[in-house]
Each structure stands twice: as structure tokens, then as C-alpha cells.
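At this stage, I wrote out one protein's amino acid sequence and its C-alpha cells, and that material follows here:
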Amino acid sequence: MTDDRPRPVKTTQTSLALVRAVRESDGATLSELADRLELAKSTVHNHLHTLVDEGFLVRDGDTFHVGLQFLAFGEHARGRNPLYATARRHVYSLAETTGHEADFIVEENGRAYSLEYAIGESSRRSLSESSPFRAGNRFYMHNCASGKALLASMSESRVGEILERWGLPATTDHTITDEAELFDELEAIRRRGYAVNDEELIDGYRSIGAAVTDPDGEVVGAFSVGGPTYRMATDESTAEELAQLLRDEIGSLESTLF
């Protein structure tokens, strides 16, 4: 038998790896990138200058940064989601009402993407630059409230496909890494109607999330509110209060769109 699957294009992979590395480093030199990706400097040089010529990277002295050319692509991708414009308003409403960080998440290719993110007043006073929910960030679905809320609304077969592709990598000591445990957690989420992330994504961060579904019961996104553990209480009454705020916003969005 022959394998008809398309083969990855190595040069494209290299260019994308360089762009990711530049972004993650918030700027990097040619030598730093060559060392980080274990590539020849001549190879890195050619890729970097091609990316600069095309506007995807910019150069400041010896340091390369992500270029604004990506902005048009990102805005186009986000704007394609028919929920975005309406969901955006509800994200800001949640942030204002709760004082916490709020976000709207969608799933694409088995990963979670933050389409919109807002900061409430209490979070603004102690904002952490490490917040994972800034618009455009991508992460796994099993270790955050929004992602688990999405998984709980999917069929078991779809969840299985996602786990087969991406696994259950641990990002903290609290991350669920056992498949049976995750399925038990998803069943608990269905019963109570919301998901909880208790330091499973990053240490010291807690959040609550709930899914948005269309009239056919298909999941189309999820909202969450969260913040540092010292401001996000763990008692059930507080969680239920925040969950009700999420339900109210979701009900408002669903009544507007569907």
C-alpha cells in the first residue's frame, strides 16, 4: 500500500517555527533563533530576510520582531466567526460585572482559541502579563474552564478524536492527565452546567466556564471568568454565583443570535 497523505513542506515548517520563536521571545536575534531551533545560521538568515521582505517580520537593529502584516490576517480570521461581534460585547459585560478577567473561546482543529479577552476592574489593579487568555492565544482544551466546557458539550467520539491527536499534557501539577478522570470530570460538568479550572492551566489561576450552543444543541463557543486564586474563592456558593452570571450572558447572546 502507498501512503497518499501529503508530506509536510520542511521550508514552510521552518519559517513558521521561526515566527513562533520570535513571538514567544518577544523579539530575537539571528544567533538566538539559530541556537533555539538548532538550525544553521545561513538557513535562519535566508528565512528571516524573506519574512522581513514579505512584511511578516520587522528588524530593529539585530533583533527581529513580528510584523503588523499578521494583524490583517488575525482580524480576518477572528471576524469570520459569526458570533464574534456579539460575543465581544458580552465579554466586556462579564468583565465589568464580575471585576475579573473574561474571555470568549472557540475550538478549531481540537485546540482552544481566545477570540476576545477583557479585564475587569479588580483584575486591572493586579494584572498578570502571563494571563493565557489574551485574544489570539491557543491552548489545550482539557486544562482550562472554557475548554472543558466545550469538551463536555461534544460527543464522546469527538472528544476521543481530540485526545488522540493532542493527548493530555500537564501544564501544572493539578492538570488532569488521565483519560478516565477527564471523562468523569466532563460528566460532572454536564450535571452542574459549568466547568472549573482550579490551577490546572497555570499555577495560581482559577476560572469558571460555560458553553454556548446553537438551537440544534451544537457547541459554538464558551465564556469564562477567572483570576488569581487569592481573588477567586473556591466555595460552592461563589462558584454558583459566577456560573449564574455566565448563564445570564449566554442566554442573552443565544436569544439575540438564534
Remarks:
- The two ends are 48 Å apart (CA to CA).
- Strands lie at 28-29, 57-60, 63-66, 101-108, 111-119, 138-139, 195-198, 205-213, 219-228.
- The longest strand covers residues 219-228.
- The CA atoms of residues 29 and 63 lie 4 Å apart.
